[in-house]
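Case study 2.
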Amino acid sequence: MDRSKWLNRRLTREHALEVHFQLGLRAYDEGDLYGLKRHRAALALLPRGGGHDSLEFLALDWRTLWLEGQRPEAVEVARELVLRFPDDADAVLELAQILVDLEQTDEAIEVLVRGTADNPADVELWYELGLAAERGERYDLRKTAFGHVWRLEHDVQPTHRLWLSEQRFMTIVEETLARLPPPARAALGNVAILVEDYPESWIVDSEIGDPRILGLFDGPTRAEEQSISVVPQQPSRITLYRYNIERSCRSAEEAEEQIGITVLHEIGHYLGLDEDALHARGLG
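Prediction:
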């Protein structure tokens, strides 16, 4: 066969595989079982690179089973996918996440421990391991995993920077404060609001643990400041972490909205609200 024709066929086949795979993933995200099955069937017919043994087919296969309500069968296919393609970090993440959804946290941790050994530079695997370890109350492992996340991310800007200037950042903070009811605004007193790029390393060693927190309230609450039995050791302050906020968003507009939510979340902590109360108010 002419080499140019062979190359064109190969590129066409690879393009078809990628298109059906991406459309299948979109169908899954939309809960479209019929569309997902259609793209899975198309992958099964592709020779050399497609077929029932391909990474893409298996990834759509477990999703099909999941939408059909066949959860144990879906997990088995996801396990097979990781077994065949241990270097594919996405496959490891997906298996771990569905195991967590099924409350099989211990197995999820085992999967992620193996995944980080095979992919030691993949920060998402380390982060998911930290979350799973926290869920399983394995705090030494959580510290180790989040420590890797901190070291991998601390000096690295987000891959897709939104480039909100610090001035714009603070303008959004000020606008958020201006919208507070007067009593809440008055209650803030001299609470300082700071902007930093990324948390310091002590976060990993603390009860917080998570190096990807978007903001942090630190210091005495409003009630503690007003109590005669409590002597504050430091002033209250709210810190916003710019890189983490940008990493969590897909656009500058979304980042601006998240800044406002984070400010209100941390003010809520200052006023004495816990995480459950903040989530109930849409400020989780």
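Confidence is low (pLDDT under 50) at residues 1-12.
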